[in-house]
Amino acid sequence: SKQTIPHFYLAIDCQLDALVAARARLNALAPQEGPRAFKLSLNDFIIKALAMALQTVPAANATWTEQGILRHRASDIAVAVALEGGGLHTPVIRDAEIKSLSEISNEVRDLAARARSKRLAPHEYQGGSTTISNLGMYGIDRFDAVINPPQSSILAVGRAEKRPVVKDDALKIATMMSVTLSVDHRVIDGAL
Fold first, then answer.
1. Residue 13 and residue 124: Cα distance in Å, rounded?
2. C-alpha radius of gyration, the chain, whole number
3. Which of 27, 40, 81, 112 is most buried, judging by how many CB atoms fall within 10 Å of its CB?
4. Pairing, β 88-89 against β 170-184
5. Angle 42-56/101-116 helices, nearest 10 degrees?
6. Which has the closest alpha carbon to 158: 186, 181, 174?
7. What is the rounded CA–CA span in Å between residue 57 and residue 145?
8. 105-111-117 Cα angle (round to 5)
9. Residue-wise pLDDT tens digits, 41-54
């Protein structure tokens, strides 16, 4: 898609200490067995945050078509899942903006397992407003992901790690994560 889509990139470092603490509290309260069991990952929070961001900035919740820009009401977030032997699938969490974190977590876990075993139905990996590609578990600090057409953006997520930061004019240690949004300039401009 780099040959047909004019990409530009927006990068930011996110401080995660409050999120990591909230995740630990929620996981400690979560049922461990049964149909309501769940264990939240950082990626579940990222999916929910991106879904809510697309609702806050609806002009960014769009895809490119030959007929023009198609705006979406729902935040359907695709998640890149690496396949053994190479390649990837991008199962879609539909209506992520209205789902709870536990629903997102369980749905991602199910879809990812079925993607790895190549048992996804086409409607489970086609479409989507945008994609998240998380390479943090491989020790990658930051990267620029390639847009998955016809989507107009993809969020590249690096690893969460302790880093020195300046806060209140003092050097402190914080859990940080770098993210880069690759954007189709035909659909979304830099100010948006």
1. 31
2. 17
3. 81
4. unpaired
5. 110
6. 181
7. 21
8. 135
9. 999 999 999 999 99
pLDDT per residue over 146-188, tens digit each? 999 999 999 999 999 999 999 999 999 999 999 999 999 999 9
Whole-number Cα distances in Å, 76 to 13, 26, 85, 125: 24, 24, 27, 11
Q: What is the pLDDT of residues 35-89, one digit of tens each?
A: 888 999 999 999 999 999 999 999 999 999 999 999 999 999 999 999 888 888 9
Beta pairing partners, 130: 77
* Cβ neighbours for 174, distance < 8 A, ≥ 6 positions apart: 15, 16, 17, 162, 163, 165, 167
Q: What pLDDT is attached to residue 141?
A: 96
Q: Which of 72, 89, 123, 185 is catalytic?
A: 185
Is 185 considered catalytic here? Answer: yes
Q: Which two tokens mark 160?
A: 């969460």
Count the alpha carbons within 13 Å of 97 in the hemisphere toward its beta carbon. Answer: 18
pLDDT interval class at 2 (50, 70, 90)? confident
